[in-house]
C-alpha cells in the first residue's frame, strides 16, 4: 500500500491519517462509509485591521524573501477597505450556516474553522477538535478547483497542522474533493447570470452587445500545467483551466435556457473565461487574458455591456471587491461600457446545503455514479492522484489525502 507523503518523509508513523481513503481509492473515490466525527473548514485568512496587513502579507509570501516595501504595493488594496479583508467574517458566517444545516439534518457533527495565513490558524482548529474528543476529521477547503494553491496547498496545510500539534498518528484527516461542478456551487452562479440578463432585458438592452466574462484567479502557467492528475492530457492551462471552462459553459447554457423557458427572446450570448489578480515578476508567464484587457478588447469590438461572473471564488473577498468591483468596473467606465457583477455563493442556502451534501457523500461512501455533478469532469477524486498539483517552486511536500508523490 502506498503511504502518504508525510509518512514517507518521516518513516515512523502508522498509516492512520488516510488509511481507509487510500485503501478504498483505487479509482480515486472512497466508496465505503467513514464515521467522520468533525469537519474543519479551511480558509485562506485575511487581516482584520490596518496593523494586521503587513504581517498577514508576510504570512502569505513566507519563504519568498519579499521585502515589506514590495508588500506595501499590495497592501493598498486592503488599506482601501480599512485594512479589513471580508474573508474572515464571511467564513464565520459560512461556519455558522454549515453548522446549522448539519444540525438540521441530524448529522451530529461539529464544524470547526481554521486558516492558512491568519488567526484562527489551522493547527489551533485541529487542536481544539482533538481536545473536544474528535479523531476522524473531514477537511473542507474554501476553494473549488485544482491547482497547487487551491488544492494541494490545503492538503499540505492539514499535514503541517498534524505536525505542529504532534497529532500525527492520533488523528485522521481526509479532504472533500474539488467541488467546482457540484450542484450547490453551480446553481447560485446560474441564478446570478439569469438575474443580470433579466436586468438588462428589463432596461431594453440588446443582448447581442453583451459579453459574459467568467473570472478566476490567474496562476503561473507552469503551475496550471501541473494542475490535476498527470495521467490525463488536459490541454492548455491544465485541469485548472479545463474545470473553469467546463463549469462556465454549463452556467451560461443553463442561464440562457432558463430565460428562454420564461419566454424571453435571448440570443446565444458570447462568453469568455478570463483571469485576474496576477502577481509575480512580469517575466513570469501567467494565465491570460486579464479581465481588464478582455474588457477593452470587447469594447473595441462593439460590446456595450459586460457581465462579470466571479466563477473562481466562493465569496466576495478582496480579489472580488478590489479587482472586479473596483478595477474592472473602472475599466468598463473608461471604455464606455456598462458593467454588472454577479454575486459569489457566499452563504447562499443552496450553496451551504450543497457543501453538506458533499460531507454526507463521504459519510455514506456514496458511489461515484450516484454523486450528482454538472460537468463530465466530475465527480472529482476524493484522494488526489500521483503527481497532482505540484508546487513548481518547492516540489512535493508532505500532504494528506493523496497518493505519492
Task: Explain what this protein looks like in three dimensions.
By secondary structure, the protein is of the alpha/beta class. Helices cover 42% and strands 11% of the residues. The chain is built from 13 helices and 8 strands. Helix 7 links the parallel strand 3 and strand 4. Helix 8 packs antiparallel against helix 13. The radius of gyration is 21 Å and the shape is globular.
Short structural description:
This protein is α/β, with parallel strands linked by helices. It has helices at residues 5-10, 19-23, 53-60, 68-79, 87-104, 122-131, 148-165, 183-202, 221-225, 238-261, 291-300, 318-334, 349-364, and strands at 38-43, 111-115, 136-141, 172-175, 210-217, 270-276, 305-309, 338-341. It is built from 13 helices and 8 strands.
Looking at this protein, list some descriptive labels.
single chain; 405 residues; alpha/beta; Rossmann fold; 2 domains; 4-stranded parallel β-sheet; 13 helices; 8 strands; 42% helix; porphyrin biosynthesis
Helix content: 40-55%
What is the CATH C-level name of the largest domain?
Alpha Beta
Beta-strand segment tally: 8
The count of domains is: 2
Question: How many whole angstroms does the radius of gyration measure?
Answer: 21 Å
- The computed structural class is alpha/beta
- Which CATH architecture of the largest domain would you pick? 3-Layer(aba) Sandwich
Q: End-to-end distance, in Å?
A: 13 Å
- Quote the CATH topology of the largest domain: Rossmann fold
Can you tell me the overall shape?
A: globular
